[in-house]
Amino acid sequence: MNAPTGKALEAVRAEAQENHRELRSRIDRLSDDAIDLILREARSHYAWTDRPIPDALLQELYDITISGPTSMNTLPARFVFVKSAEGKARLAKSLKPQNVPKMMGAPITVIVAYDREFWKELPFLFPHDDRRHLFEGKPEHSAETAFRNGTLQGAYLMMAARALGLDVGAMSGFSNQIVDDEFFKGTSLKSNFLCNIGYADETALFQKLPRFSFEQACTVV
Asked: Does the predicted model carry a pTM greater than 0.70?
Protein backbone atom coordinates (compact mmCIF):
# COMPACT_ATOMS: atom_id res chain seq x y z
CA MET A 1 0.00 0.00 0.00
CA ASN A 2 1.25 3.47 -0.83
CA ALA A 3 -1.16 5.96 0.72
CA PRO A 4 -0.13 9.48 1.79
CA THR A 5 0.34 10.09 5.49
CA GLY A 6 0.93 13.05 7.80
CA LYS A 7 1.32 16.40 6.07
CA ALA A 8 0.98 14.81 2.64
CA LEU A 9 -2.40 13.35 3.61
CA GLU A 10 -3.55 16.71 4.98
CA ALA A 11 -2.56 18.37 1.70
CA VAL A 12 -4.38 15.95 -0.60
CA ARG A 13 -7.50 16.06 1.59
CA ALA A 14 -7.49 19.86 1.57
CA GLU A 15 -7.09 19.86 -2.21
CA ALA A 16 -10.00 17.44 -2.63
CA GLN A 17 -12.23 19.56 -0.41
CA GLU A 18 -11.35 22.76 -2.25
CA ASN A 19 -11.92 21.12 -5.64
CA HIS A 20 -15.40 20.06 -4.55
CA ARG A 21 -16.24 23.50 -3.21
CA GLU A 22 -15.12 25.01 -6.53
CA LEU A 23 -17.24 22.54 -8.49
CA ARG A 24 -20.35 23.31 -6.47
CA SER A 25 -19.74 27.04 -6.84
CA ARG A 26 -19.83 26.60 -10.64
CA ILE A 27 -22.70 24.08 -10.85
CA ASP A 28 -25.32 23.90 -8.11
CA ARG A 29 -27.61 21.59 -10.09
CA LEU A 30 -28.15 20.25 -13.59
CA SER A 31 -30.46 22.03 -15.96
CA ASP A 32 -33.97 20.66 -16.47
CA ASP A 33 -32.94 19.69 -20.01
CA ALA A 34 -30.01 17.65 -18.68
CA ILE A 35 -32.23 15.90 -16.13
CA ASP A 36 -34.78 15.16 -18.86
CA LEU A 37 -32.04 13.66 -21.04
CA ILE A 38 -30.63 11.26 -18.48
CA LEU A 39 -33.73 10.32 -16.46
CA ARG A 40 -37.03 12.20 -16.49
CA GLU A 41 -37.80 11.89 -20.22
CA ALA A 42 -35.31 9.12 -21.02
CA ARG A 43 -36.60 5.87 -22.48
CA SER A 44 -35.46 2.27 -22.76
CA HIS A 45 -34.82 1.42 -26.41
CA TYR A 46 -34.85 -1.83 -28.33
CA ALA A 47 -34.57 -0.61 -31.94
CA TRP A 48 -31.50 1.09 -33.33
CA THR A 49 -30.09 3.07 -36.21
CA ASP A 50 -26.89 1.92 -37.91
CA ARG A 51 -24.90 4.91 -36.67
CA PRO A 52 -21.61 3.50 -35.31
CA ILE A 53 -20.07 4.10 -31.90
CA PRO A 54 -16.32 4.79 -32.05
CA ASP A 55 -14.04 3.08 -29.53
CA ALA A 56 -12.95 6.51 -28.24
CA LEU A 57 -16.53 7.13 -27.12
CA LEU A 58 -16.55 3.81 -25.26
CA GLN A 59 -13.39 4.91 -23.48
CA GLU A 60 -15.04 8.20 -22.51
CA LEU A 61 -18.12 6.31 -21.34
CA TYR A 62 -15.99 4.11 -19.10
CA ASP A 63 -14.00 7.05 -17.75
CA ILE A 64 -17.25 8.69 -16.58
CA THR A 65 -18.74 5.47 -15.24
CA ILE A 66 -15.72 4.55 -13.13
CA SER A 67 -16.02 7.84 -11.23
CA GLY A 68 -19.29 6.74 -9.59
CA PRO A 69 -19.08 5.84 -5.89
CA THR A 70 -18.99 2.30 -4.53
CA SER A 71 -18.53 1.08 -0.96
CA MET A 72 -14.84 1.25 0.03
CA ASN A 73 -14.10 2.07 -3.62
CA THR A 74 -14.44 -1.64 -4.39
CA LEU A 75 -15.31 -1.08 -8.09
CA PRO A 76 -16.28 -4.72 -8.75
CA ALA A 77 -18.04 -4.15 -12.10
CA ARG A 78 -16.44 -5.45 -15.29
CA PHE A 79 -17.80 -4.53 -18.72
CA VAL A 80 -17.61 -6.57 -21.90
CA PHE A 81 -18.53 -4.46 -24.94
CA VAL A 82 -19.85 -6.95 -27.49
CA LYS A 83 -19.78 -5.45 -30.99
CA SER A 84 -18.31 -8.04 -33.40
CA ALA A 85 -20.43 -10.54 -35.32
CA GLU A 86 -18.56 -13.37 -33.59
CA GLY A 87 -19.19 -11.87 -30.15
CA LYS A 88 -22.86 -11.28 -30.92
CA ALA A 89 -23.27 -14.90 -32.06
CA ARG A 90 -21.76 -16.12 -28.79
CA LEU A 91 -24.02 -13.85 -26.74
CA ALA A 92 -27.13 -14.84 -28.73
CA LYS A 93 -26.84 -18.38 -27.34
CA SER A 94 -27.93 -17.06 -23.95
CA LEU A 95 -30.94 -15.01 -25.01
CA LYS A 96 -34.61 -15.88 -25.12
CA PRO A 97 -35.72 -15.94 -28.77
CA GLN A 98 -37.69 -12.69 -28.57
CA ASN A 99 -34.62 -10.84 -27.31
CA VAL A 100 -32.20 -11.96 -30.01
CA PRO A 101 -33.27 -9.31 -32.58
CA LYS A 102 -33.03 -6.57 -29.94
CA MET A 103 -29.45 -7.50 -29.19
CA MET A 104 -28.39 -8.21 -32.76
CA GLY A 105 -29.75 -4.87 -33.95
CA ALA A 106 -27.83 -2.83 -31.38
CA PRO A 107 -24.39 -1.50 -32.31
CA ILE A 108 -23.04 -2.67 -28.95
CA THR A 109 -24.33 -4.84 -26.15
CA VAL A 110 -22.58 -4.53 -22.81
CA ILE A 111 -22.32 -7.50 -20.50
CA VAL A 112 -22.39 -5.88 -17.07
CA ALA A 113 -20.52 -8.32 -14.84
CA TYR A 114 -18.95 -8.29 -11.40
CA ASP A 115 -15.77 -9.75 -9.98
CA ARG A 116 -16.29 -11.77 -6.81
CA GLU A 117 -12.59 -11.44 -6.05
CA PHE A 118 -12.61 -7.65 -6.25
CA TRP A 119 -11.17 -7.54 -2.74
CA LYS A 120 -7.76 -8.65 -4.00
CA GLU A 121 -7.39 -5.20 -5.60
CA LEU A 122 -8.15 -3.28 -2.39
CA PRO A 123 -4.50 -2.44 -1.67
CA PHE A 124 -4.63 -0.35 -4.87
CA LEU A 125 -8.22 0.87 -4.62
CA PHE A 126 -8.35 1.55 -0.85
CA PRO A 127 -4.67 2.07 0.01
CA HIS A 128 -4.99 3.86 3.35
CA ASP A 129 -6.30 0.77 5.19
CA ASP A 130 -5.99 -2.91 4.27
CA ARG A 131 -9.57 -4.21 4.24
CA ARG A 132 -8.94 -7.53 2.50
CA HIS A 133 -9.56 -9.41 5.75
CA LEU A 134 -13.23 -8.37 5.56
CA PHE A 135 -13.69 -10.50 2.43
CA GLU A 136 -10.96 -13.14 2.29
CA GLY A 137 -12.45 -16.55 3.06
CA LYS A 138 -15.97 -15.09 3.05
CA PRO A 139 -17.33 -15.92 -0.42
CA GLU A 140 -20.98 -15.13 0.33
CA HIS A 141 -20.17 -11.69 1.72
CA SER A 142 -17.81 -11.02 -1.19
CA ALA A 143 -20.42 -12.04 -3.76
CA GLU A 144 -23.13 -9.92 -2.11
CA THR A 145 -20.87 -6.87 -1.97
CA ALA A 146 -19.76 -7.37 -5.58
CA PHE A 147 -23.31 -7.80 -6.86
CA ARG A 148 -24.65 -4.72 -5.04
CA ASN A 149 -21.87 -2.40 -6.06
CA GLY A 150 -21.56 -3.86 -9.55
CA THR A 151 -25.26 -3.19 -10.08
CA LEU A 152 -24.71 0.41 -9.02
CA GLN A 153 -21.93 0.69 -11.57
CA GLY A 154 -24.18 -0.74 -14.27
CA ALA A 155 -26.67 2.04 -13.53
CA TYR A 156 -23.88 4.61 -13.67
CA LEU A 157 -22.97 3.24 -17.10
CA MET A 158 -26.52 3.79 -18.34
CA MET A 159 -26.69 7.35 -16.98
CA ALA A 160 -23.26 8.17 -18.41
CA ALA A 161 -24.27 6.83 -21.83
CA ARG A 162 -27.35 9.03 -21.88
CA ALA A 163 -25.28 12.02 -20.74
CA LEU A 164 -23.03 11.45 -23.78
CA GLY A 165 -25.99 11.46 -26.15
CA LEU A 166 -26.29 7.68 -26.49
CA ASP A 167 -29.42 5.61 -25.91
CA VAL A 168 -29.65 2.47 -23.80
CA GLY A 169 -31.88 -0.53 -23.33
CA ALA A 170 -31.16 -2.82 -20.39
CA MET A 171 -32.16 -6.47 -20.78
CA SER A 172 -32.91 -9.48 -18.67
CA GLY A 173 -34.43 -12.42 -20.53
CA PHE A 174 -31.18 -14.37 -20.87
CA SER A 175 -29.32 -17.17 -19.12
CA ASN A 176 -26.62 -15.88 -16.80
CA GLN A 177 -25.14 -19.37 -16.70
CA ILE A 178 -24.71 -19.52 -20.48
CA VAL A 179 -23.14 -16.04 -20.54
CA ASP A 180 -20.77 -17.05 -17.73
CA ASP A 181 -19.81 -20.28 -19.48
CA GLU A 182 -19.27 -18.48 -22.79
CA PHE A 183 -17.40 -15.38 -21.59
CA PHE A 184 -16.17 -15.93 -18.02
CA LYS A 185 -15.41 -19.63 -17.65
CA GLY A 186 -12.52 -20.26 -15.29
CA THR A 187 -12.61 -16.72 -13.87
CA SER A 188 -14.05 -15.04 -10.77
CA LEU A 189 -16.47 -12.98 -12.90
CA LYS A 190 -20.24 -13.41 -13.00
CA SER A 191 -22.72 -11.72 -15.34
CA ASN A 192 -25.38 -9.40 -13.91
CA PHE A 193 -27.41 -7.90 -16.77
CA LEU A 194 -27.11 -6.86 -20.41
CA CYS A 195 -27.46 -3.37 -21.82
CA ASN A 196 -27.79 -2.42 -25.48
CA ILE A 197 -26.15 0.88 -26.41
CA GLY A 198 -26.46 2.92 -29.57
CA TYR A 199 -28.48 5.62 -31.25
CA ALA A 200 -32.14 4.69 -31.04
CA ASP A 201 -34.74 4.34 -33.75
CA GLU A 202 -37.57 6.17 -32.00
CA THR A 203 -40.24 4.78 -34.33
CA ALA A 204 -40.29 1.64 -32.18
CA LEU A 205 -41.25 3.49 -28.98
CA PHE A 206 -44.55 3.10 -27.17
CA GLN A 207 -45.99 5.48 -24.63
CA LYS A 208 -44.15 5.83 -21.33
CA LEU A 209 -45.52 3.50 -18.68
CA PRO A 210 -46.91 4.73 -15.33
CA ARG A 211 -44.72 5.55 -12.36
CA PHE A 212 -45.58 5.58 -8.64
CA SER A 213 -46.21 8.93 -6.99
CA PHE A 214 -44.09 10.16 -4.07
CA GLU A 215 -46.90 9.24 -1.67
CA GLN A 216 -47.12 5.70 -3.02
CA ALA A 217 -43.41 4.91 -2.84
CA CYS A 218 -41.85 7.14 -0.19
CA THR A 219 -42.00 7.55 3.57
CA VAL A 220 -40.46 10.40 5.52
CA VAL A 221 -39.75 9.51 9.16
From this structure: yes
